Amino acid sequence: QVQLVESGGGLVQPGGSLRLSCAASGVIFSINRMGWYRQAPGKERELVGAIISGGSAKYADSVAGRFTISRDNAKKTMDLQMNSLKPEDTAVYYCNADIISTGRMKNYWGQGTQVTVSS
Question: What is the pLDDT of residues 20-44, one digit of tens each?
Answer without folding.
Answer: 999 999 999 999 999 999 999 999 9
